[in-house]
């Protein structure tokens, strides 16, 4: 999921702790592989381990950034073939 901030960074940062807690919950459930803010900070990327775009959209709809109108997300499918994640195995 690639996000684009819809509000100034100062407003986004007011909800950042809530967003990070949301991400931690996804990680605990084995649904988020990694995440981070873009540079420059105009959005972020969350690599989800889900089977369908619909599942990704359902999960991301609960992100505090989305619920508060701070960010929108676009789903981009990806198949790992090389690099550090090439041997990645789903945890759950």
UniProtKB/TrEMBL annotation:
Name under which the protein is recorded: YCII-related domain-containing protein
SUPFAM superfamilies: Dimeric alpha+beta barrel (SSF54909)
PANTHER family with a match to the protein in the record: GSR2449 PROTEIN, YCII-RELATED DOMAIN-CONTAINING PROTEIN
UniProt organism field: Actinoplanes awajinensis subsp. mycoplanecinus
Pfam families in the record: YCII
Family to which the UniProt record says this protein belongs: Belongs to the YciI family.
Domain of life: Bacteria
Domain spans labelled YCII-related: 2-74
Gene3D superfamilies assigned to the protein according to its UniProt record, in alphabetical order: Dimeric alpha+beta barrel
């Amino acid at each position: 999921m690639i996000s684009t901030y819809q509000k100034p960074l100062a407003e986004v940062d007011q909800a950042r702790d809530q967003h990070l807690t949301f991400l931690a919950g996804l990680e605990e459930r084995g649904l988020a592989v990694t995440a981070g803010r873009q540079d420059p900070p105009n959005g972020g990327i969350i690599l989800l381990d889900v089977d369908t775009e619909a599942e990704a959209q359902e999960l991301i709809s609960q992100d505090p950034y989305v619920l508060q109108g701070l960010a929108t997300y676009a789903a981009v499918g990806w198949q790992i073939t090389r690099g550090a994640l090439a041997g990645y195995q789903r945890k759950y």
